[in-house]
Amino acid sequence: MRNFFFLALLANFLLYAFGTGAFGPPPQEQGREPLRMNQQIRADSLSTRPLSP
């Protein structure tokens, strides 16, 4: 029972470290391109419209 507790504690610590970016960029930051947003030309002229059914 003690081994299971320490295994669960270690798994919890590793998942927390992975989620905060201790092993690289955090998972929620992957796929984002913040530099591309700064390089867009006339980004304010884009508009969205609702799709017709």
Attribute tags:
53 residues, mainly alpha, 2 helices
Distance between the termini: 58 Å
Radius of gyration: 21 Å
Q: So what's the oligomer here?
A: single chain
Mean pLDDT: 82
Low-confidence stretches: none
The total strand number stands at 0
Strand content: under 5%
Explained architecture:
The chain has 53 residues and is an all-alpha fold. 47% of the residues lie in helices and 0% in strands. The chain has two helices and no strands. The chain has helices at 2-20, 34-39. The longest helix has 19 residues, at 2-20. The radius of gyration is 21 Å and the shape is elongated.
Q: What topology emerges from the helices and strands here?
A:
Layout: H1 2-20, H2 34-39
Brief summary of the model shown:
It contains two helices and no strands.
